[in-house]
Design goal:
This protein is mainly alpha-helical. Helix content is 74%, strand content 2%. The chain has eight helices and two strands. The longest helix is centred in the middle third of the chain and has 31 residues.
Amino acid sequence: MAESRGGVAGRPRIGIGWPLAAGVALGIASFCADLVDGTLRTVLQFVASTGFAWGCAAFVAAFPARTRRGAAAAAIIVLCTATGCYYWLNLPGGFRPGGQFGPLFKAFAYWMVLSIAGGALLGPLAHAVRTDRARRAAVAAGVACGLLSGAGIAIVTSLLAAGNYGRAGLTEGMLQAAAGIAVATWAFARRREARDWAVYGAAALAACTAGALAWSAVESVPVTGF
């Protein structure tokens, strides 16, 4: 089959420049969030070192993709690049007195596997929200809503269940949850085709519950990470 500079004839080329750049920026910002204090740390952690931030970057990068495969590739590239960049920047810590490479490599492998899995989920969901028929797009948007807001909901529910009503922790969790819901709703609302808001609402409600449980399980594993 003939190929052009744009890729295989009849198929759009998957551009990796934007996902790579987004992944590098996300990894560096997440690393920097560990080095600063005060308000700057709070801001950087929210925009670059939370489950919402990483999921949102993958979802948004995948949204314009022309094909489902391209969307999955874009999301995976963002998350894997960010993970690799973050742990590469943390690598010198293993050379310091008392530093250990074992836990670092374990965390890197764990989050890399989750990056691939998360990208493989979020990418096709973003594509479905933009291009599928109304009902399927609504379900996809609802599932994406649960994935993007799940980390924040998990934080809030775990704090409340433990009787911890500290303002900082609850605020962080609620901001993540609200931002995740806002991004998924925005993506669904900007569809050019028909929208089924009732299906979206039902799917989002179920997915937020499932997403919170999934994130609780993810973060229960004792490795260095978010």
